[in-house]
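Retro notes - structure team

What went well: the batch runner handled both jobs without manual restarts.
What didn't: labels got mixed up in the shared folder, which is why I'm recording both outputs here explicitly, each with its sequence directly above its tokens.

Job 1
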Amino acid sequence: MLPAVSPFLEIPRSLNESSKPAIIHLRRDQHQAITLSPASTLQSRFGTFPHSSFIGLPPGSQVRASAAQPTQRDQRKRKRQSASATTTTTESEEPQEAASGFVHILAPTAELWTASLPHRTQVVYTPDSSYILHRLGVGPGTQIIEAGAGSGSFTHAAVRAVYSGYPDGRDGLRHANGKKGKVWSFEFHEERAGKLREELEHHGLDTLVEVTHKDVCAEGFLVPSPSTDLKFTSPAASAIFLDLPAPWLALPHLTRASPSPLDPLAEVRICTFSPCIEQVTRTCSSMRSLGWVDISTVEISHQNLEVRRQLPRGYDDGAGPRTISEALARLKGVNDFREQRKDIQSSIAAGESASFAGLGFKKSGGRRKLENGDEGRIVSRNEPDLKSHTSFLTFATLPREWTVEQETEAEEWVKAMDSKGVELKVVGEKEKRWKGDGQESKRAKKKRERAEKKEGEEGKETNGSVKQNEEPAGDKMEVDD
């Protein structure tokens, strides 16, 4: 019987021991990855949670702390109380119930794993990885090369994007033209490469990712073949991600020259991840010399927005007056308060009995509560901290090779379509802006209209002056007659 699909690729209905790992949501910005085991217990600041309380629950369930065991905070409190106690009691104390702490149990995803994984190197966060996969055109069935695997954050995001079924036939409903997507991951550090293999095997992704310990800058991207007939295997990749300190040293190995690690029948897109602009400049120079086109560099700045509904505030909540009448009433109240306080102080100085009790403004009994979801106004607030690694992403494209035979075949196909009366249309950004020399641009059209308008005005002025000059001549001729 084949094992179940990895929970990273298909969310399970309930979490059990095979759900490796399970993600514990402690706070909005704090997650912890655990392996469920009936004999284990999770200790956190929110309480004690036996793993048996997680097993069998659907993802997203809320689990309260166990009352059988006190929390770490309660244990420290009891220890301080026992150390400061001067008397001892022989009666057995009843166990105290734990505080009402709770956590949420979640199924693993690439985003949650990025937030909870052990950092061995700098991590490619979700804002960067999602944009990179989008620009590289990665989808089910894609072969992608990743150089500089590090902690495996981008690896998990990439394997989810290329997934189209396991090689052994599990969940083969999303095949892309019969192709099986795969991630070819390269790591220079042997210990990090071994650790990444263990994690992928633990997560059920080892057959979808091939991790190779190799220096790609010196040895290239060909993978040793398990077959005795071939010495190396080509990844035949159409997407490449380089997270290297010197990506320009690896670019000479990414060419069409045989043997090539690239897909010979498709254009290849690449992305380099560099923290310094000097690295970007050198990488772009190397790309141009090797035939890469459409080179561009971007930087991702990710910031969350907190959107909530805010009720109108009154004086009790610190808001100012909204009208002149409210301001005058407030000023009158302040003056009355000052006069009352002076009278009480004078009475106390004269030896009379007086008290400040009851002196002050009458409040409305607290802030008004939200009665329905339509009250107040919707406001948003930016987070002060950026949750992404500030690096430059350089993208480029390597066109597919176009032979003379293919050019001849394309010309014959176009002629055949023309003979059939088929109008071939190419729609793109350039065609949307300009449709050929016969198409008059907006700028030329406005210039022509202004010239025609000016010529018309000058023609009217000329005709008017001619008529004025002709009228005296006419009168003179009548007089002469």
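Job 2
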Amino acid sequence: MRFCIKSASSVLIQSRAWRRCEAARTRASYLATSNDKSSDNNVDASPTQPSLDKGFNLLELASGIVPQGTIVKTVRQGWRFVWRRMMAELAPQDAQGNYRRPTYKFKGCIGQADYADEAGRYHLYVGNPCPWCHRCLLAVKLMGFTSDQVGVTRLLDEPTKASRGGWIFTDEQPDPLGSYDLRELYDKLDPGYKGRCTAPLLIDKRTRKIVSNESSDIVRMLDLARLGGSATTNRLRLYPEHLGASIDATNEWVYSLLNDGCYRCGFATTQQAYDQASAGVRQGLAKCEAILEKQAFLCADVFTEADLRLLPTMLRFDGAYAPLFRAGGAHLKLQSDYPNIHQWMRRCWKMPGVKESIDLEDATSSYFRQLFPLNPGGLVPSPVSASSLGLDEE
């Protein structure tokens, strides 16, 4: 793009037409100045108009010499090249412009030989905007684990202050191991680590090792763990054995069509990649709507792991995924277009611990603040709330 603009400028400066244009501009400026001086003596003169920012004014100054189409095409191609490079940094792409979520090497599990099921040994790091973090915090809240059983630190999403990624610690929520940001914590626990420093993150404080940074694995192991609690403790079970097959099958299509599908809409860099992901989102929403017309939750009339994995995506849909990611089409609204899903959200919202697991306003507005390749102007729409989403209605 720099070469194209530089070359075009060189041609313009050297051309006779450009010199004629400059002469005309000089004359017009002189006449305008004369008129301004004359108007000073006219008591009926109109008030001075405010100056307008016209950018580089390329179209007005150069379109007489270089066709407007050439200018627009050059700028568009340059902007698109920079945008695609930034999108690849933000979200890894395949050759067809599809977002491909990275995988990670941390495969520990509470209850294995290296990770005994004990209270106070494990610590979970989560960030409010992230739906994958939200899954894990929901599991902690819904199963009633206390801070003595598993510690939780809430991270701040601030990429301008983070050394890599976006998560940093705050004075109100410091790292128990004394790190400044999540990258420093990864370096402490896994020296030489080169991958993305993502949350959620579950660590073993005793061995100072990473157990897992995969939300689905963390949710499942928390459901199976006691963490010092009694085997007879009556708490919610997210994965009852008799529903296991149904939960696994539901998780598969919910992840592909909705959890990951929304992100594949937002991070697509080709029209084909977006169209495929967006069609999948609509398919997933229609499937949920049909199921929830017949029963209270996805796999039965009780809340299960399948509902927990869907809920963070749905709570962010109207405020971020539809308007910013254009998931399923930017016009979709769960509250009006999918009444059964909306009623399900309201049932989930009333469950103890769910409201406390998320700051909806921060979670949805963060997408507009931080994902600047998708929102380069930085404008943040009026935020959603539980009230505006109809979740607090009786």
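One thing worth noting from job 2: DSSP finds 13 helices and five strands in the chain.
We'll revisit the folder naming next retro.
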